[in-house]
Design a protein that fits this description.
This protein folds into 2 domains: 179 residues, no CATH class; 168 residues, no CATH class. The protein contains 13 helices and 10 strands. It has a 10-stranded mixed β-sheet with strand order 1-2-3-5-4-6-7-8-10-9, sandwiched between helices. α8 crosses α9. The longest helix has 21 residues. The protein starts with 6 loop residues before the first helix and ends with a helix.
């Protein structure tokens, strides 16, 4: 089913939203200036044949869409490395006054242990296990997610791999984004790793991070994976470890992320169906927001500012979003029939909250194919009124680009329902 922009409804719906970013040249925050577009139909195959049942979706159409995203947007994600192995580096059974057990786990990508990430995880005590879990990437380092003094600071080897521009911040500088005790008190484990452990977030021609393990000796192509795919790959490696930890039920793991890491969580959930739930927080362009709307951050802007995030093929669509063979509603559709939550912030116009919601609506026909209720109303939903339709969740939080306790409480409620 094709979905078209409803300009009048869009303008009315967005009336109360003010842009948080300055009105820079070439950036559109005016709903009346959103170009006309028609979304690709997730239920029409490349050969033009309609998808009428789940079997055809899973065997024919879903692989087509996944391949298009890999070739044209994110790049192809490699599988599990042959020498992948794990070591528990530290454990504290009395974290947060006895609420949880803290573990730091070395996840090694090669036999020489020169390429690795450190997974920080907390598992609630006094809860019958194995327990469900959340897993996500963090921006500033494991130590920055908490005031727990047992969490290790980055080692000299990690700092060397992170690059000379990396600045070590004090403990707990991002703790408001990681309410560990609240999550643990609800009966969930929580696991995270620093993005730079997998791939530092700057463009050096893909010589740092995990890329050389797979690219060495092979020339990169226009379909080669970028940093978003590398981080998503790291999330799958975290899940590989969780499958070995008897305290965690690896069949009940939710992957989540905020901003660029929300893009990562969506792509990880699309590529790796082992993730039981997928949560996107303010993921914007290249995440949940529709590219064809050209509202806020655009394909051209993101590829110019962050040329390492996506594969080179994606750059073909700078200023030519209508030429894309896919759009982000189809990325969300790849999550079906698993529970999916998309959240936005009212002042975060750079990430296009309305485009994120319309993407959820556009993924609805695939969830409906499985028999689930979906979001169908194309008018923008009100602020601070969370809603769940079938296996889809959505809210718009009042405020700016961030992930706050309000968001987490909604995700925990959603997880209570499905995990």
């Amino acid at each position: 089913m094709n979905t078209k922009t409803l300009t009048l409804l869009a303008a009315l719906a967005m009336f109360s939203f003010a842009p948080v970013h300055a009105q820079t040249q070439g950036t559109n925050y005016d709903e009346s200036k959103v170009p006309s577009y028609t979304l690709p139909d997730p239920l029409v195959r490349n050969n033009g044949r309609p998808v009428k049942n789940v079997r055809t979706w899973e065997k024919k159409r879903r692989p087509e869409i996944l391949d298009l995203f890999a070739r044209e947007v994110y790049g192809h994600v490699p599988g599990k490395p042959a020498d992948l192995h794990f070591k528990v580096l530290k454990e504290n059974p009395k974290a947060f006054g006895g609420l949880a057990t803290m573990r730091e786990v070395g996840i090694y990508f090669n036999a020489q242990e020169t390429n690795y990430m450190v997974l920080l995880m907390y598992v609630p005590n006094n809860v019958k296990g194995p327990v469900p879990a959340f897993v996500g990437v963090n921006f500033k380092g494991n130590h920055a997610t908490t005031d727990d003094p047992e969490v290790s600071m980055p080692t000299a080897d990690q700092l060397r791999r992170y690059g000379p521009d990396f600045q070590v911040e004090p403990r707990n500088t991002a703790g408001d984004r990681w309410p560990f005790e609240t999550i643990l008190s609800r009966g969930y484990a929580i696991a995270t790793f620093h993005r730079a452990d997998v791939d530092p977030d700057f463009h050096d021609g893909f010589k740092n991070g995990v890329h050389p393990l797979f690219d060495a000796g092979n020339p990169r192509t226009a379909e080669s994976w970028g940093t978003i795919s590398a981080w998503a790959w790291g999330l799958s490696r975290a899940l590989d470890y969780l499958e070995t930890d008897p305290a965690v039920d690896a069949k009940r793991v939710a992957v989540f992320g905020h901003s660029r890491l929300g893009k990562t969580a969506l792509w990880a959930g699309a590529v790796d169906p082992r993730f039981a739930m997928v949560i996107s927080n303010d993921s914007g362009c290249g995440g949940a927001a529709l590219s064809r709307r050209c509202f806020g951050e655009t394909v051209g802007r993101i590829n110019t500012t962050f040329p390492h995030w996506f594969c080179d093929n994606f750059k073909k669509y700078n200023g030519k979003e209508n030429d894309l063979p896919v759009d982000q509603h189809e990325l969300l559709a790849l999550i079906a029939p698993r529970p999916l939550y998309v959240a936005s912030a009212s002042e975060d116009q750079w990430a296009d909250p309305y485009g994120e919601y319309l993407s959820l609506v556009g993924a609805g026909p695939v969830y409906a194919l499985y028999g689930f209720e979906t979001f169908t109303d194309t008018a923008m939903r009100p602020v601070a009124v969370p809603a769940v339709k079938g296996r889809m969740g959505h809210h718009i939080r009042q405020g700016k680009h961030n992930i706050l306790i309000y968001d987490w409480l909604r995700y925990l409620d959603f997880a209570d329902k499905f995990l």
